[in-house]
Sequence to fold (375 residues):
Amino acid sequence: MTTPHCFSVNYQQARQKFITAARIAGAEIDSFENSCSGVGGAGLFTDVASIGQAGAENVLVLISGTHGVEGFAGSGIQSGLLTTGIAEALSANARLVMIHALNPYGFAFLRRANEDNVDLNRNFIDHDKPYPVNREYDKISGLIAPRSMSAPANIWATLRFLWYRLVFGNEKLQRIVTQGQYAHPDGLFFGGHFATWSNQTLDQIATRQLAGAGRVVVIDLHTGLGPYGKGEIILSEPEQNPAYQRAVAWWGEARVKSTESGESVSSHLSGTVKLSFTRMLVGAEVTAVGLEFGTSPPLEVFKALREENWLHQQAGDNHPLAARIKQQFLKMFYPDDDLWKQNVWEQSELVVRQALAGLEDESPKVIDAISPPGS
Fold:
């Protein structure tokens, strides 16, 4: 059954539900406070709930809020799992680590980026080396992050984007726009010029929680890409990689996709949260995936991203269109639809339980996948 009471209307409510559920489940809680203040001056925290044997060989890590506003779904899933007794599925040599609101600023202020306008899923790179260059993004950066949202400016931008779609095709244009860029701090998908607070915090969490782990599964919860209500398990490794093969064994070939092959709803990215675990956990067997749930067509999502970034960078929250833009932005990543929430919850619970089985068995039996309505 669904757990509608586990989903929330704002960050503070989500955090309280998560901490309450974690305490009832007997979890240890570790909190990391961000230097920024939240809505009304409230604190912003990344909270970690851990259940199971300290120093366990097998660890499942579940992350919400890497892209702040996407934390509404991820937080509801985490609280729901705690409430419905996921701890009972842990074996004696397994540990569950839930990282709640990795990007608390974006969660609280309905932004996808963090307090530095950084997309965390582009930030986990070596900042001592030259940054990747995205020259095609540079050419259209003014269209992606405009200074004006007037009717003439939007008409001109629409015509230019149509031209670029004809020249590049949809897939290449998506890759150009979303793969990440490091030259436009006020733009979309900016990877940052230093390791952000969330980046550094995740490193601390891994040091505290994953020391000694031999097998680690990481599930980073996301929304916004793909068919409505359908979950896709995304890896960055090629199909011949052992991590990809483990994922297929646990979750099934129909649900698992690699960005390397071009079959995923996501473009191939570097500097992602899930890839950072391989670097942090040298010597461990790491299977790190994103679990992405579709919401709206890509063009609608991009339009909302573009408008919200303009509001933040150029107009300010007192602009007459602010409420409408924020409401539409939230809808793109967290639909106000009980059936969507039910479906996301059921798929997530199944994926997590399959992951726990996978930690115990090299060749677990794949449980039949749940399909979203209308699929």
Observations:
- The two ends are 20 Å apart (CA to CA).
- Confidence is low (pLDDT under 50) at residues 363-375.
